[in-house]
Protein 1
Amino acid sequence: MAFEGLSEKLQSIMQKLKGHGKLSEKEIDSALKEVRIALLEADVNFKVVKSFIEKVRERALGSEVMQSLTPAQQVIKIVHSELIELMGSTASRLELGQEPPIVIMMVGLQGSGKTTTSAKLANLLKKANNKRPMLVACDTRRPAAVKQLETLGTQIGVPVHHVEGASPEQIAKSAVEGALKSGRDLVILDTAGRLHIDEELMQELERIKILTDPDEILLVVDAMTGQDAVNVAKAFQERLDITGVILTKLDGDARGGAALSVRAVTGKPIKFAGTGEKLDGIEVFHPDRMASRILGMGDILTVIEKAQESFDVEQAKKIEAKLRKQEFSLEDFLVQLKEIKKMGPLGDMLSMIPGLSSNRKLKDLKVDEKQMSRVEAIIYSMTPGERRRPDTIDSSRKKRIAAGSGTKVQDVNALLKQYEETKKLLKAFGGGKRQKMRMPGIF
Amino acid sequence: MGILGLIGKGLTKTKEALSKKLGELFGGRDYICAEDLDELEAMLLQADLGQSTVEKILSELKSRMEADGKADRKVLEGIISGIIGEILSASSKTEIQIHKPHVIVLLGVNGTGKTTSAGKMAYSLSRQGKKVVLAAADTFRAAAIEQLEVWAERAGAELVKHKQGSDPSAVAFDAAKAAINRDADYLIVDTAGRLHTKSNLMEELKKVGKVIGGQVESAPHETLLVIDATTGQNGLVQAREFNKAIPLTGIILTKLDGTAKGGIVVAVSEELGIPVKYVGVGESAEDLRPFDAKEFVEGLFKVGEVDNAVS
């Protein structure tokens, strides 16, 4: 039972109800039934779902269907905007303006990713905010937790404070007290992860809070968490009055309904999203994108932004000019391929595109990164003249190129064909006719 | 308290939560009717049971309610435990034959408790007088090797390790050799946590499996997916993908001592027929317990106990 896109499901239900005008109660209810299931399948807590659906229903009743939309789209639109509102409509940042040292306390269940996230956050604040962070290993319980933080600290060049044999409270306190003296203006406390019903842990965290007076207390939540997310969030909120949430493991394919539950229960913003195992895998959390993801509509905005970041504007202009002059060569083709490579593993990109994320066949499709290096080898085995004028490449040249690049003539042929197709495609986008570029629709 | 009693302790949370909900549903009446079905559906979903199992329960219930539009608590619980019990016990029928060395590979997404489970398993087998070799094939996560080292010491098991960042297949290879040479009874391989969406990491896992198979005949004999009880519907996707990479023989359901209900294993068992083998119910070495399907279900819905536990 794969997750079908919610929008597809709704379309099929409402196909018969194409009439415009006011949304009828019947239309709304049948649509909301699907929305409800979609949210539950995305792991949004059922109580949160219930109150959310009631709210949407109220707003949808009697609302005009816009000319351009079908009733199904109208309902989705309302659902989407309500979701964004519930999640907080803008990205929320850390409070870093206070007097140094700034203290950030990380809390959460075991296995949610506190230690890795602590290091990622230190790395981010060091690079983006010119902070001089210090990591503090307060998890004295889990075997090798201190060692883990120390290893990560070394990787990002951030010192790790730990006192062997001391209590977590003492370690935290001494770190905060000594931070400024050792030239550190930001302290990140990595606390022990245990269950939220573990009274001993909660008291320990409360004591650390009193002793260090943190500017931020961030709850680290695994994006794959199910219905229990509300209990966890509630417990940490009640005991520690957290200031924000970091959602981890968002690079997987979990729909992340926990985000909505946590937000609804705590009322606190989700500030960051953890993506990937590398230490730069952390980004500012965008509620609007999360709303799309929970609804199973993919994360098209992230795709677009990533593409924008990676593509060199100047480079793109040059290529456009070349296309106009019919000068797009294999060298340019290679540059294009490298640009695409910069956007990250192609598989990751594909999974963020609506429709593709739920398409099982496409999901299994492997984008072969080795293929890329083969293409490079083939192009580098050509003479500069051949690269500029691929039409001069005859069969004996093909044989030579194949031998030079350690490939087969078929590979060379395939590449040349791909090049021709890319040329056509680029022309359609940017060159002569200037066709309207169509992004896949969100609804 | 016997072993089964202790599992019961871990499962109490599951039982309390779901049964308390059932109590609310009945709200003083001794039956439920058609209007209550939506609420019941939500409750079942809340245990992370998954849509397909829940639908099964509801349609069965509806057909039982056809006569007078009502169902009492006994009927309802009979249906629920019947369906869940059937799913869980159907998948647990396959017997695992013990080899020597018997190779067990633990796998799963990040942070579910693979290393801890490997350690607990080694501890319990050593206590039974078995000779255990642990393989630190999580060469990615910082200090994962050190963490397993601590467990190996506790368990009195031998640890085969390489440096962090080295090839996990090489670790598996050496560990398999060591297990054979030392005439070990068990080889437990701890692998790095990986998201099932990362195809390169899934390939790496396949390779680990192949390398072990090359050393020990018909190994790995058990491949256990470690799932965190807090996991939601994504657990099913995880199981599907890991099962594709290396056919799974079982599940370890960890962190069941919290408030999470772990209902996702029912969905996994239902779709993939993979049985739950062990449950993790605490942090100490003894807290990994064999899973008992019948008891799991009984624990969920025993009426008398429930009412006492709730009040």
Protein 2
Amino acid sequence: MRRILTIEDDAATAREIISELHANGFEVDWVSTAREGLLRAVGSVYDLITLDRMLPDLDGLAVVTTMRQVGVQTPVLMISALSDVDERVRGLRAGGDDYLTKPFAPDEMSARIEVLLRRRQTAAPNITLLRVHDLELDLISRVGRRRGIDLDLQPTEFKLLEVMMRNSGQVLTRMMLFEAVWDFHFDPGTNLVNVHMSRLRKKIDPAGLPALIRTVRGSGYVLEAPV
Amino acid sequence: MHANPHPWRSTTTRLLAIYGVFFSAWAIVLLSLIYWETSQYLTEETEHLLGERAEYFASIDPGRLRERLESTYEFDLLHLNAYGLFNAKGEPVAGNIHAIPAGLEPDGHGRVYRERFNGSETPASTRILAIRLRNGYELVLARNAALIDRLHQLISRAIAWGLSLTVFPGLLGGLVLSIRPRRRIRSLQAASDRIVTGDLHQRLPLSGRGDELDNLASVVNRMLDKVERLMFEVKNVCDNLAHDLRTPLTHLRAQLYRLQQQTAAEDIRAATIDQAVAETDDLLARFAALLRISELKDEHRRAGFKRLDLIEVLHQVYELYEPLAEEKSISFKRFFPNGSLQIQGDRHLLIEAFSNLVGNAIKFTPVSGEVAIQVLIESAGARVDVTDNGPGIAPDQREAIFQRFFRGDQSRSTPGFGLGLSIVEAILRLHDFQIQVGNPPIGACLTVLCWPAPLAYDSAGIVAQEQTVGLALS
């Protein structure tokens, strides 16, 4: 069973996190102080840590920095009420792997956690060719192919497809896509990502072929081999 | 915003001018009175003298008259007097008046003539009187009244000098004295302009002299203190409310989401639940935007400003929204100068601001409409116009669109919640940029003035773009 450590001082938020994680089949340990969190993170093995940025005894940034200094490489999802881009950058620079702003939708959190866990398993940064079912993406020549036929992809579409294929089989929320593809961190409204996605879908899922990109109701999109 | 106070309109200048006019009028009245009294007296004296002489000569035996006349006038050393004796036919018999002046009746009443007197060059006022003697001869006696002329001249000159010495220094003094008050008014204006544009920390400057202006300014300042405190309280309440409501809303959303996950898409309740989730997301986004605006008002953000290329930012925004425009069959154009436009700013925030403007333009433009982003390099800096041919913004709403929660009449049917432009405004304010609502014949035009001037404009170009030219949009 996959284990997650939740360092969060607000009981209500903690309950929210725990129930969502339980629903997704995780075992959760909850601590409410940075000190205790650090001890647990160093002392036992976790698949992932969710870390509140503002803790009563210590700044979340200090926690993650300390963890990385002592050699703990567990992925860290930082959760913070500070929504600013600067804060986000600071959080990632300190050693966090992703940054989620409070309040957040639980499905957004679990989608991010899944991606972080997967990234760890398939840590092969040197791949030059991504393949899902009959879809190929050559990262060197920057060409996409479906059933061996070249796809005419714009740079944004290529980037979007690359992100989807790197995380194939995983639900990616619109916010995650907006961050990963464009590196923008504001709320553009739901429609914007949808429009870019429908453009991409027209190209890679033409009529007659089984669709690879699937809309996940209420959450986002997933790219995977058809069943 | 305000007309600069005209020097002639200042209170000091006006007071001095009015005072000058009154003073001059009084001086004129006084001098005129003196003139009138004096000339009256002199005239009477002359009349009297002439009358006495006429009476005297009339009493003298006509045979001895010539002799007596000559001896009398021999001693008129000042040549103030003249006489003429004429026979019954009007021919001159004696004296230095050789013709009877026209219209002179021998009735013993003096009349005023302008004559050249006793060889003087210029004609002067002369009082002349004629009498009929017993032998039928006519005696004409004249007396120079130039003294009255002189008096007249003297007093006129006095008035002229007096006026010029009062009025001109008065006006000049007024202008000079009004310089300081006008300078103070200008600084008061500048301060209130800054307050009007939203800088509520500003206070009206006090001169420390404790005069009426200072009193007024300190009253206004006290008022501003109060207004600022109230605004701060309202803002705090707003922010706290947004903050406090966000947590229960998040829980609500989480539960709805769980319900959504448990409901199969075929279930008839699924659509309602989807709707509820979407509405909750909307509410959450609203609160997030509210808090974002408060965050952006914090000036510390400027510390993170870096050098960036505005044109590149705009290209990114263009590419981000291009599919959305295409979906609505909107012709979406960009008119950017070649090259880079370096400014100091926050890339993420500027992208957010311009995305908002472009997103709005696309949202409010009907299907098959037109939207354009245009960059113009001006001497003062760069300006970015975002234009569309949608319904436009009514003139009376142009100020209000930047207020939180404002939604135009036309936009009620379009999704959104009226916080976008407040965020844009907050971001631009942070950059010291200005946003203006233009007045195009059709549609809307929002102009961002990226002033002060950019750090550098490299027209040599780093990237050749497919769309260039500074074509004017029509």
